[in-house]
Amino acid sequence: MLILRLGAMGDILHALPAVTALRATHPDWFLGWAIEPQWRGLLAANNALARGLAMPVIDQLHIVAAKEWGRHPISAVTIEDIRRVRQELRAARYDVCVDLQGALRSAVLGKWAHPRRHIGEEKPREWAARYLFDEPIPTKGVHVIEQAVEVANAVAREDLPVMLPWLPVSETAETFCDVRLAALNNKPFAILNPGAGWGAKRWPAERYGEVACALVKRGYGVVINAGPGEEMLAREVNAASGNIAITLMPALDELIALTRRSSLVIAGDTGPLHLASALGKPVVGIFGPTDPARNGPFGGNFRVLRHPESKRDHSRHAEPEAGLLTISPKDVLNSADNVLKETR
User: Fold this and answer.
1) Strand, helix or coil for residue 167
2) Pick the CATH number of 171-343 from 3.40.630.30, 3.40.50.1110, 3.40.50.2000, 2.40.50.140
3) What was the pLDDT predicted at 47?
């Protein structure tokens, strides 16, 4: 079986519960996954000694640099890489292809594999993809995780459990955490993730700084996570906190290990928030122009803050959405206190 979900981080994490359920229910099935190279760490740990730890959910990775293809569509490198992917997918002889992306490019990849069954949602993200599916599956779930499980149910022809995904363990990432968190002396800590995909989803840095100060007074250490290109934002948050936090720029496997050890994660609608939810960690989500009912934390112990007048809008505005700015540090801290109390 071939899984198609190329990216991005949160979207892959939303697809993983359904695929984990397939693996748990049918451990003898051969599962492959086509994925963009930067997200492979969500499926396969680097330098893991045992294969079971390296890829807990899938048997084979297919690296598909589709975004790079789009940037250089007629280069010799792109043409050769497309040829490689087509040959690799066909050679795997998949009998079923499950498209959990719902995009035209993922549907085309599915056709390259020549499966007997090509399955996807009846109403995919890009409508044209539907016409490449052999079996378009109607879904009723509100959250994208529920929708993915419904598609997986159609594949397995049974009702699968909704479960936390299995994520890889990396020994080098564990060592990274041992070293970088040594200053906390085993104190419980919270991760603050101030970055997001675009400005309208970013809660102000000074407010994260205020939250960091309050968490330290409550006896928690604070780690500020900076993704690629977010180093300056993380420094702004730490400066606003009086430089009392640890600022880290972890690789993906290191972020997984770091999140596993955390006691709380506070973030907007972004990959690290969905990672924390996938790992069953207590979460406070700060939402603005995206809908948490569809894309927010799922299962586990969480709180989501969103102004009732915020509208779903995926426009890439640079400034924080107006409703997002109505959420105060006090609101976030009250939610954090409640979610931690419930966890205890």
Assistant:
1) coil
2) 3.40.50.2000
3) 55
